[in-house]
Amino acid sequence: MFQEVLQKITTHVEGVQGCVLLDSDSVPIAELYGAGDRDAINFIAIELTNLVGSLRKRNVLEEFGAVTQFMLSTERAIVLGQIINDEYVLLTAMDPTADLGRGATMLRLMAPWVKRIL
């Protein structure tokens, strides 16, 4: 079921290198890769999930409110993350020339689907 969600993201956002659904322990639940480096995407997904979890546990973001989405931009990829709930994060890695707005929108739209499956 999760694979369908990941497939929808890769189908509707041009330039997706990979999509990963992780739990709060940064364990990949579902993965789908395109032309991206699987190991690099997994490593970044795990580290970003750990960072966001650490910030939430320490209430560092209290003044700004709860994290809903986050992004890491590098020379070769843009990684977008969508918080599903306290337990799950949905991430996608895209080419730097991909439509960032479309990627963020697809993650936001897919979040309720993932919640229903959980």
Q: What do these coordinates show?
A:
- The protein is α+β, with helices and mostly antiparallel strands and 118 residues long.
- The chain has one domain (2-117): Dynein light chain 2a, cytoplasmic (Beta-Lactamase), CATH 3.30.450.
- Helices cover 42% and strands 27% of the residues.
- The protein is built from three helices and five strands, in the order H-E-E-H-E-E-E-H.
- It has a five-stranded antiparallel β-sheet, with helices on both faces.
- The longest helix has 20 residues, at 38-57.
- It is globular.
- The model has no long low-confidence stretch (mean pLDDT 90).
What is the topological layout?
Blueprint: H1 2-12, E1 16-23, E2 28-33, H2 38-57, E3 69-73, E4 78-83, E5 88-94, H3 100-117
Antiparallel strand pairs: 1-2, 1-5, 3-4, 4-5
Helix pairs in contact: 1-3
